[in-house]
Records
---
Amino acid sequence: MQDSHTSETTQKSIEATIVSGILSAKIRPGTRLGENQLAALFGVSRTRVREAMMRLESRGIVHVSPRRGWFVVEPSAEDAIAVYEARRIVEAGLLRSMRTLTEEGSKALDAHLTEERNAMAAGDRQRLTYLMGDFHIRIAELSGNAIIVDILRDLTARTILISMLYQSEFHAAQSHEGHCRIFEAMQAGDFVRAAELSVEHLDDVEMGLDLTARPDPLSDLCNSLSLPPRTASPPLSP
Amino acid sequence: MQDSHTSETTQKSIEATIVSGILSAKIRPGTRLGENQLAALFGVSRTRVREAMMRLESRGIVHVSPRRGWFVVEPSAEDAIAVYEARRIVEAGLLRSMRTLTEEGSKALDAHLTEERNAMAAGDRQRLTYLMGDFHIRIAELSGNAIIVDILRDLTARTILISMLYQSEFHAAQSHEGHCRIFEAMQAGDFVRAAELSVEHLDDVEMGLDLTARPDPLSDLCNSLSLPPRTASPPLSP
DNA sequence: TGTGGCTATCTTGCATACAAGACAGAAAGC
DNA sequence: GCTTTCTGTCTTGTATGCAAGATAGCCACA
């Protein structure tokens, strides 16, 4: 699910690969997604790449600058606020709609929180970013409602892009603590409390952002100079 | 916004036209959307039609049957349940997140409810279907959150498709009454109550569906025989 | 009369070709 | 040295061509 070019290039693998790359913080906001590069990477023609880009655009993941190229979105401060507001609405509504936490669900969340702890102990920041977002998707999966899962996956992807732009430092321990408290409320069957905690948790994370910072203080520069982004792994190299 | 081929064929007009057609119940579920037909209708090449179809597919509005064609989705009974559940989650979360109802918002909703009454008096069922769905979108617009508006628009489109498949008769008066009660709660500033009423309203509508009915008892037949659907206006004729 | 298979036609899937615009870098002028 | 302009290159935008598959209708045949 996370390597680029499998032998069988299925219909939506380009789309899924890019979203997966964002969710695991391997693709930065503003990353250029050239049709030719992607076509070569996946061994297909530009046509199919464009179709994937169109779908991703309708999901709010990429945007096109006419005759310049496709870019992973760089959410503005207003966008960031809207995304967090949307997440509060959907996640609180979701938790409030829940009635029971199944045994499997409890185990799944427990295992997830253990993974979070392991990643924290290992200092694996990229994996941690992925897990912190995935927790909320896991909760959506408990509901069994694929529509909500899709919505939250896309919102989480945008959240990760936002955090890469505006989050000066990563309070992983605090987020993990928030997740644990939400889980405890769910285990206690108090889904109203879980919803409230979830809203507070999202408020906390949003408050930790520096939304006064320009979205692209020097990532623009990097792109202009055709330099790779300032992280360990280059965006889409095989 | 509702006629097919304007002189300026903008980037997303195909997409918007089809969604608009569904929202106003002019396009039935299962309607075949031939690439060639749409291309001719909009005066563009199949390429752009395909791009619009791709975006609509990612929004859950159409689906493709390989080498057979594009079709407006015919939600299954399970899909219908998931859509209503998702709407309850999002709309209840939305209303609970609201704090005030502005003067403009109150006027907009009031005007909308008047339109509903007018359409009921005129017996304009198609317009009524549109308005009944649009009420919920209007509420989303009050929040000023474009993400939530988009989500609810797509869910509403699917809701209308569901009602065309499973709703034996249309209790417009009952729905209108529900909308009025939600509006009253909002005017009173009681958004928790408004959220509860919204959930009940959606429950009522869902209960009015006959989900045991097969999704396509004879619309399949109509398509197979290349007959127009059994409504007044043919799906996409100019 | 019913049934099986064949073919003609129509559909989408996918690649490619060409056009138009944006950008970078060089060259020219001041 | 600085600015301006021009041109080559690279990008996406769009149409078109061809191939593969699905379907319908016809024909042969039992």
---
Amino acid sequence: MFEIFQKYISDQITLSEEDYELIKSVCIFKKLRKRQYLLQDGDIWKFNAFVCKGCLRNYRVDENGGEHIMGFSKECWWTGDRESLLTGKPSANNIDALEDSEVILITKPSFEMLCAQLPAFNDLINGILNKSFIASQNRIHSAISFTAEQKYRSFMDKYPDLTHRVPQHMIASFLGITPETLSRVRKEVAKK
Amino acid sequence: MFEIFQKYISDQITLSEEDYELIKSVCIFKKLRKRQYLLQDGDIWKFNAFVCKGCLRNYRVDENGGEHIMGFSKECWWTGDRESLLTGKPSANNIDALEDSEVILITKPSFEMLCAQLPAFNDLINGILNKSFIASQNRIHSAISFTAEQKYRSFMDKYPDLTHRVPQHMIASFLGITPETLSRVRKEVAKK
DNA sequence: TAAAAACCTTGATATAGATCAAGTTGCTTT
DNA sequence: AAAGCAACTTGATCTATATCAAGGTTTTTA
């Protein structure tokens, strides 16, 4: 399980054997069965989580029980709840596994230690935060500007693999449309 | 103009006189008249921009000429286009002044120098990036989950001052609804 | 200070997408 | 392998919001 994380890191920066030992020493390995929660709303989230295998979703539940998917995380993506982690307040999010999955958890203090000890690791993480922010901006743009069809096309464009990997009604939820609408949009898109 | 930036910093971290001199030495001071562009799409954005005075908007234009407002930035907020800055590619965004404004620009190399030389400054900036990311997540949630009325209420909640400071049709654009709908929503909200 | 723009509101109408409902297919679980 | 559940589709209808249009108000500019 650690090898995947190690490869992910070594593909981007150069670290010594000892550096990897240090990282490994603070990793918490966790296997999740399909449908198992990694985080439930109301809990306080304490980690940074790296997905080695499988796929998770991060969602919020509204007052009517409606689920709204904030994001998916597959292998080599990060997940968690930055807001709860930063503020120490209970999370409004739920994270659960869409498939049997394997994740690595690193507590906030350990993570900060790594960033302090390993400048290259710190840069790597910073780059990811930057990229996530940019992705969020683009998602906001699509949410406030696009039609249902444009939203779906841009999803396929950006996440071609997820398009077939996660249930359609979850993609609909991610896009902020109903499953019925997505089904009809797909029929249209298939025609052209 | 620099005093505002200095106060903003000193309210959050402690720096020496020399540190401020260093910061000041890389600041580019710029005054903008109402409607003046700070960035036009197609240009490559090279700075981090801190708003000392006034208010700007950041927006994208779609193929039909429709404007979609990504964000507002008033005094003591940051603005710019992180994506263009990071990738070096032409920006898809426009930034212009809604009021006569004053901004401080810091080029990317200078900014990185400051972050490297002044760890506290680096932490400060990191905190801002984190908070912006969290704000983006919350905006995504509202965009995919809320009705027009809920969107407007949450805007008033989050930005009570902007509610009266920027034109209504721009708030509508920010929320992803039409100006007419916003006008009607406001009438409803006023009743209750 | 008058003319021109920009802005906001209100009404009438249109429509994209939501909701409700039923049937089908395809996974899980025992 | 059957039963039960979850996922997808399709049709009918409804509704929140968009679009189109016009008038009134405020702000800008000459």
